[in-house]
Amino acid sequence: MSTIEDVAKLAGLSRTTVSRVINNHPYVSEDKRKLVIEAMNQLGYVPNSSARSLRSQKTDVIALFVPRIMNPFFSQLVESMEIAAAEQGYQLIICQTRYSPEKELNYMNLLKMKQVDGVVLASIQNDWKVLEPFLDYGPIVLCNEFDEQANVPSVMLDQVHGAYIATKHLLEQGHRRIAYCRGSTRSNVASHRELGFRKALAEYGIEFDEQYAFRDAFHSEDGRRVFHQMIALSNPPTAVFTGSDEVAAGIISEANKHGCSVPEQLAVVGFDNQEITELMKPTITTVHQPVDKMAQKALEVMIEKIHSRKYKQREVYEFPLKLIVRESTVSNKLAKL
């Protein structure tokens, strides 16, 4: 069995530094922390205190992984899940991965070291085969993001239908040149939304045009960028479906600044139904996601799995989405009908 001295030798660091990493001491550089984690993984090392109580220790702490806490969707998810956890006597700690596979793996060691009872993944940065071994140390529940290869509980939304109804709405308004903004190319949520977008176009006999596809759009600054990319096209789109209210707000803000009338010259649909949708001028048509219900269900499932220890099987809990029509796709008068 490997020891802390073995880890220190392999990492090329002192025993004290290794100990600080194991105990989450704040004054350790990210580079040294990474070296220690890599050495621990390579040696299969588990701290003695964790190894002794690996099967019996209970912390009453659950970790929630999000890619970006400033995204209103994830902020709402965090708040809803924290409230639900507190009501059940659990603490929720937030791990912001910033879309980094390395950060995600570092945080997963919280489960391996039994510093948390379970992990809720609201985003996934690594292939599932990389994350699956951590199931030996406790339950993992997917919430929002999902992976077809993962034999674990998944609490998700019908993203294909959400994108389909949003795109169909634009088609029903007479638009035929419709742009699409999506987030991460790794995300299955984004991929399913693209499927819904393509499905709606196909029903109207419209081929997916790659020049109208804008990827890696996450926040308002990306929306501003996308607006300029769209109007630079020789035959620019008359409508755009985005995977984020933040991106939609950035597009509308830039359109207003450059005299492009929304929705008359460019119709815009967001996704999430965040507060910003009703603060913008014009207000934003969007797809409502029942974040509170999803967060509560994910927490409920996680606690059940912590107690039953039966979590290595696929379970799917899916919630519906609905379109909220506002001024960014139709006139103010029509939006109120």
UniProtKB/TrEMBL annotation:
Keywords: DNA-binding, Transcription, Transcription regulation. SUPFAM superfamilies: lambda repressor-like DNA-binding domains, Periplasmic binding protein-like I. GO terms for molecular function: DNA-binding transcription factor activity; transcription cis-regulatory region binding. Residues 2-56 form the HTH lacI-type domain. It comes from the Bacteria. It holds the Pfam family Peripla_BP_3. This is DNA-binding LacI/PurR family transcriptional regulator.
